[in-house]
Amino acid sequence: MSLLDIRMSRIDAGYVHIEKGHHYDVPVQQFSSLYIPQTCHIEVSVEGGAFERVERGGLVGLPKGTAHRLRLPGEPQQARGTIAPPFAALRTRNRMAERVFAARHAVSINPIPDLVPTLISATCAEIAADPRLKSTVSVICELADTGTNTHDAVFVRMSEALALVLIERVMERSAPEGASVDGAFHDMRLRNAIRAMHERPAEDWSLNSLAKEVGLSRSAFAETFRNSTGQTPYQYLTRVRIDAATHLLGTPNLSISEIAWQSGYQSDAAFIKAFRRIVGVSPGAYRRAQTQGAPA
Question: Where in the chain are all domains bearing CATH 2.60.120.280?
Answer without folding.
Answer: 3-174
